[in-house]
Amino acid sequence: MDATLAKLKELAGAKVTVTANQPVRPTAIPPMLDPKIMGPVTKVATKHFPGLPILPLMSTGATDGIFFEAIGIPVYGAPGVFIDKDMGGIHGLNERIRVASLYDGRDYLFDLVKAFAG
């Protein structure tokens, strides 16, 4: 943030005042890839989506998880819903997913909850 602010001040020049708001949210902390979490996720994903790798990534969307992580509670996401490769249906006038993807994701999440519930 400091480097970005310094660059903006440099570009704006002396006639413009540039200030930064303090972050309103904690800094994101990625959770550990705990085998007790990743094991069931991998097993259920392999059943529903054979051949697809499990890749850890950080969501760019808004989540309350950032506040839980800040107090030491790890948060994981395992959506199981696939979107079109052009991402054309995200947050637009025609937001959509395929019907098959909705049902596949439902079945995957149902089995994942059962796996964690024992």
Description of the molecule:
- There is one protein chain.
- The protein is extended.
- It contains 4 helices and no strands.
- The mean pLDDT is 88.
- It is mainly α and 118 residues long.
- The N and C termini lie far apart (44 Å).
Number of strands: 0
Tell me the overall shape: extended
Helix and strand pattern: HHHH
Give the number of helices.
Answer: 4
Low-confidence segments, given as residue ranges, are: none
Task: Considering the chains and any ligands shown, give keywords for the structure.
0% strand, 118 residues, mainly alpha, 4 helices
Write the layout of secondary structure elements.
Elements: H1 2-12, H2 35-48, H3 65-70, H4 99-117
Helix pairs in contact: 2-4
